[in-house]
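Case study 2.
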Amino acid sequence: MSFSENTIKLFQRAEEILKDHFEKVEKTEEINQFKVIESFRKNRISEAHLGGTTGYGYGDKGRDDLDRVYADIFGTEDALVRSQIVSGTQALALCLYGVLRPGDEVVSITGKPYDTLEEVIGIRGDSDTGSLKDFGIKYRQVDLLDSGTVDIGGIKNAVSFNTKMVTLQRSRGYSYRNAICVKELEKAIKAVKEINENIVVMVDNCYGEFTEEREPSQIGADLIAGSLIKNPGGGLAQTGGYIAGRSDLIEKCAYRLTTPGLGKEVGASQGNNRLMYQGIFLAPHVVAESLKGALLCAAVMSELGYDTSPGINDIRSDIIQAVKFNEESKLIAFCQGIQSGAPIDSFVSPEPWDMPGYESQVIMAAGAFVSGASIELSADGPCIPPYIAYMQGGLTYRHVKYGLMTAVEMLEKRGK
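Prediction:
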């Protein structure tokens, strides 16, 4: 190994501090793993489910029972799990377009949505692209409090009896705040339902699945959505997304994905079933490995003098670890170090670029087996002050450790 003695000792000290934290992560992993296994057993998953279909996909039992597995895991009436959903952004857009109609109002109560949803809503980008704004759907938002928590008073002022949908983003996205934990989500959802119990509450669950013992759908959310190349795909799903929630809402989302009248009945699985089943089976363990890696990042980078969010003692409700560098060169060096420690494309040196769907240049390090899979170790960030890196993922804790050691030495080499 080429790591210096100082780097090795730095990481040994961090791991000693984190022993109790790792134990808590493993307890959550066990609960979620048992939940997944029981869902497989309840739905009598067999080898026959692991094959695939072509064409229209009529009668695809593997596909249909995978929906039931997800519904049971997330405690919902129904689910829509499809390889045809190409990203978490599309899964969320299906919820928005599926439920909302011209003249309706949607309110985000966790502030500005993730960058790639801005053009979907119509708060950024050209007109006449088919955004919600183009269809006459009104949008408002309630910013988070300075503490990073949901503004309950603001909800009561912004959400009215005429509001059709309220959205919440669980993860931090590109915001320097902690993820919204399930307990906090529960308070916010309760406040919305007290205004009007018929308001549809949708939670962007990306990066949050299996980080806690409960999911937002188990504390009152009507819809949750996410990507299979993040947490629930377990690093094996090659593409896809999911939506879980009330059966009537899932039907509307399915109509938007395919067509009214066809909905969930079509959509060939094309050989993806095996990896999607195996991915969700492994997901609680992979997420736990990612969380341990995020804790290690927080401990190490804090000792080196950098601000981190969350800290090692904070509640974690997503797999993302933010590190504030305050200098563009340090952000770039960190991301290039993570890339250098990757199993795939370790020889590539990422640079900031104009990535589609983002307002500013972004640097992305992702030496992954599945392109763009952020459940695999990756690090990225917008190249704007205060130059924050957002590290997430890691199929194994040891890989996260290796990648971080490489990144730390890259920073050291370039003068921190």
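Residues 65 and 96 are 25 Å apart (CA to CA).
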